[in-house]
Each structure stands twice: as C-alpha cells, then as structure tokens.
Amino acid sequence: MDLTALFVDFDAYFASAEQHMQPHLRGKPVGIAPVLAETSCCIAASYEAKAHGIKTGTSIGDARKLCPGIQIVQARPAKYVELHHRLVAAVESCIHVEDVLSIDEMWCWLPYNLREPETVQDIGQKIKRAIHDQVGPWINGSVGAAPNRWLAKMASKMRKPDGLFIIESTQLPEILYELELRDIHGVGRAMELRLHANGIHDVRALCHATRKQLHTAWGGIEGDRLWLQLRGKEVPTTATERRSIGHSHVLPPDKRRADAAVSVLHKLTQKAAQRLRSHGMLAQRLSLSLRYLRGGNWHLEASLEATDDSLTLAHAASHLWKQRPHQQEPLLKISIVLGQLVDQGNYTPSLFKESDSAAYQAGKNRQTLNESMDKLVKKFGKQSIYLGGAHDAIEAAPMRISFGHIPDLEIEGD
To answer: Model pTM?
Structure first.
C-alpha cells in the first residue's frame, strides 16, 4: 500500500500562537484561559507548562501551584484564526491542502507521483521550512504520513513536538505497539473501559483483535472502520449532518450578577442566530443551560416554529431566562443551543400559521432586517450592529474556536 495521506498537526497551537505574537513569552510556561479569573481553566498550555503537569482543563489556581512562574494569557481567538489562515497558505505553497479539519489540523492527499518515502520526507521538510520562513519559528507543525488519513494523523502525534514521522505499510502493525490505548484516535475513557471489558488491554491486543471483536467492542460499524484503518486501508469518511448550533461563555467576575449576565445571554443568542443564517438553517428548539457560581446547574428548552429570526430567538431566550430558579444567585457559565435544525430549502411552513397580510409583511420585514444586519456585520465587524439586549456585553463573550469549526473572520472577527 502506497503512502496516500499527509497530516499536519500544529503543536500546542494557542499557546504557541501567543509565544509567536508576544516575544516575552517565548521559552516560558504559558497557559491560555478563556477569561482572566482564578476560577477559570487552561484551554491550552505551552510545552514548557506541560512539563510541569499542566494540561487542558487544569484550573488556573492549580496551574499556579504546579508552576509558580506560569504566564496566564487570555485567549484571543480572532488572532488565532488570522494566524491559522497564514499557516494554511504556507502548507499550500508546498502541497495542496485537501481539507482543513480544525484550527490546528489539516491533511493533504499525496499525488501518485509523490508517494515514495524519500519524496514524502522531502515534502515534510519543505512544509516545516515554509512555516518557519512564511509565518515564524515559534509555530511548529508535526507532520505525519501513512497509507491512509487516520494513520497519518496517528503518525503526526507520535513524534511531537515538531516531528516528522512516516508509517509505511510494511511496518504495520508493530509500529503502533509503542502507543497507549488512549493515544489511539477514537479511544476515550469510556471506550478504553469497553475495550478492557472485551479483553483488549493494550495496542498490541487491539491490532490483533478480529474485526468481529472490534465491532462488538464499539457496538457498531465504527469498530469495523478501525479494524480496516489499523491495517492501512482507506475508509471513506461518513457524511455528517449538522444537528445543532450553540455558544457558551464562562462569565468574568463583573458579569456574574443576573442583571449583567442577561446581556451575555443575548449576545450568545445573536451569535448563534447569525451562524444559523450563514448555514441556511432554521431552528425548531432553543435550549438554555446555566451553571451557578456556588455550584449546581439548570437547563430548560423551548420548542419553536422553525425560524432564523434574531428577535424571535431573543424573545424565546428571555422567556427561558425568566423561568430560572435562584434568580439572585451569581452565575458562572451560560450556554445557548439552537437544535432540531432543518434546511431552509426543505422546510414547509405550518398550514395553520397565521397568514394575514399584516403578519406576512411583518415576517418579510424581519427577514430584511436580519439580512441587512448580517451584511453590516460582515462588512464592518461584529460590533457594528446588534440588538439592544446585548449592549452591555459587547466586550464579553468573544469569539470561541471549537473543534471542527473555524470562525469566519469577516463575520466573527474584531
């Protein structure tokens, strides 16, 4: 089996990005936090910080105990997205980027005339030089190549940081034995326990398990897919359907009172509505989740007539907000999710929906308002226009970057 896929994984990306942009952080332990509050946690850590046992999810307080000299930096997602596009361009100057998988991962299909191991090694080195020369020396990408994309991803993680590793078919499966079960892409804590229950306790046993055993352990076709991928077979990616759009925000101290937090709720709702429209979708459910500062969570949902209208969603969010318990308790986190999504082109409005001329014209006016606001935001930035309920949260709830979704700078950037 030829080498067909090359994978690029940027090391400790958010922390490395800050070290790239802020020279005084270079060579120092750095933790990235969504907000500068001791109750927050690290969403990324530099390799200097990881050497002290700090990882994603470590609380800021614990990080300071583990590494008294750590530099805690507030995340700047818009800057990371801007840097991301420069990195994609650098890789593209060496080989075509087939797909961008997340803010710090991308893969490239290897053409038939570029599959010799020596040639792939040269391409990997060329990518590293391009990143160094076109972006900077403080952003490192680990490169992996293999007979399929899944193995290329594994290869990119096996010699971090700043690695370049090629898995050839003749090395399988022995080359994978050095890994732990949790190192295998797709094996989390729960899956590891299920594998143990099926008599699989290490990667050697995983590689030698039968297809039926993995099918049973995974409880379905994902076990079959892994069995094939471990053997270097290329497995087509399964089509995914967007099921929800959501935003959440850990509140800074000055936004934890209910009268201040409500503006963050409205900003999150408006951001979700803008994304909903950008995907051409309508939502039929809105969910609100709250986490209280002193502990405890609350969640409530509302069913909607399918909509993408910001005002309608704002009213629904306000309705749920008024039903929350402990209304004077300070809050730590707000989450809003738009669910039961349908494509605008596939939606048939209710036959019983009010259809008089005044209601029809009001709906058309709302649609025009939403389209006009989206155009202004795209042209002038997210703070150029917004519904009044979000006014006190303009600097709060900034852009967030989730796995698999890279925000559009024109829509979500500053």
So the answer is: 0.68
Task: Using the predicted structure, report yes or no on whether residue 211 has a pLDDT greater than 70.
Answer: yes
Which residue, among 119, 138, 158, has the nearest Cα to 9 in the 3D structure? Answer: 158
Distant-in-sequence, close-in-space partners of 128: CB < 8 Å, separation ≥ 6? 140, 141, 143, 162, 164
- Please report which helix (H) or strand (E) contains residue 311, including its range: helix 310-321
Give the distance from CA 17 to its chain's centroid.
16
Tell me which H or E stretch contains 155: helix 149-157
Please give the average per-residue pLDDT across 232-245, as a whole number. 77
Establish how many alpha carbons lie within 13 A of residue 16's alpha carbon, considering only the half-sphere containing its beta carbon.
22
Query: Does pLDDT of 306 surpass 90?
Result: no
Both structure tokens of 184:
């295998």
Q: Give 95: exposed, middle or buried? Use CB within 10 Å, 0-12, 13-18, 19+.
A: buried
The CATH code belonging to domain 1-141+154-159 is 3.40.1170.60
**264 neighbors 251 (Cβ within 8 angstroms):** yes
Domain map of the chain by residue range? Answer: 1-141+154-159, 172-239, 244-412
Q: Does domain 244-412 have CATH number 3.20.20.10?
A: no
pLDDT digits (tens, 9 = 90+) for 122-177: 999 999 999 999 999 999 999 999 999 999 999 999 999 999 999 999 999 999 99
The correct answer on CATH 1.10.150.20 for the domain covering 172-239 is: yes
Strand partners, 7: 107, 144
| Nearest Cα to Cα of residue 333 among 4, 37, 31 | 37
Which of 15-19, 97-101, 394-398 comes out lowest in average pLDDT? 394-398
Measured CA to CA in angstroms, residue 26 lies from 9, 23, 66, 70, 86 at distances of: 20, 5, 19, 12, 20
**What count of residues does the chain have?**
414
Q: For residues 394 and 377, is the Cβ–Cβ distance under 8 A?
A: no
Strands, E assignment, 316-365: 331-339, 342-343
